[in-house]
Amino acid sequence: MIRVLVAAWMSLALNSVAFAQGKPAAPVTAAASAPEIKTKPDQARVLTGKVLSVDAKMGRLTLKLTDKEIKLITDSESTKAALEKLKVGDTARVFEKGGKLIAASPLKAESKTKTAN
Question: How far is 41 from 29, CA to CA, in rounded Å?
Answer without folding.
Answer: 24
